[in-house]
Structures are given as structure tokens and as C-alpha cells.
Model the fold of this input.
Amino acid sequence: MDRNVSSFTVLFQPPFWVGIAQRWSGEGYQAARVVFGAEPTEPQLYSWVLREWHRLRFSEPSAEKPPETDPKNPKRLQREAHAAAGARGVGTKAQEALSRQREQEGLAHQTQSRAQRQEEAERKFRLRQQKKREKKRGR
Done:
């Protein structure tokens, strides 16, 4: 028996809030996009879905398997939601650029310090070898 699975995701694509509707049915995968102006509230979204879902113009069906819909542990879902809400990237483009620059400087510093350590280890090794040779010659 085929199951129909639908999902509706609201996200911010500057400068508008956009809703992405997806559905998997016996025909295949279909998607539709709707643009909201300001950020919709949950009650507004719920009433909109009830009123407008049947009017959405979905794309042509493509062959894709529906996502797994096994029930998940509610505590796990809560942990995942908390982690997703807490994991935010850097805010502005300037901050992202500074972050990338800082990361590049850190990598350059690592490379430089690694080379210095290797040179120092090589110098100490040569010094030990020289001492060993002098000792063998009886000096």
C-alpha cells in the first residue's frame, strides 16, 4: 500500500518568508513554493494550509522515494531541535569574512610552527650525531 507523505517548511529567503511544500505520492515527488510577506505565525500558517493547500501548483512528478516516516523518540526530537536552534552561524558577511581570515591565519601559524619544530628536531639530531662521532674519536 502506498502512503502519501507531505511536508511544509517555512524559511527566510531575503527579503521574504517562503513556504516550500513537498509531497510524495504514488506518482512520485512533487514540490511547490509560496511566498509570504512578513513572518507568518503558526496559527496563520495552519489556517493557510487548511484553506490553500489544494490550490498549490505542484511541479511535475519525479521518481523519488518518500522519506522514512518511522516514529522517533520525542526526547531525541527535542534534543535535535535544541541543537539545531543553538547551532547558528556567524551573523553578517563581514563577520564571516573575518572568521575565514582568522581561520586562514591559524592554519598558517600551525604550518609555520610545525616547520620550526621539525627544524629544531633536525638540529638536535645533528648535534647528537656530532657528539657521538667526537666521543668515538676520543675527544
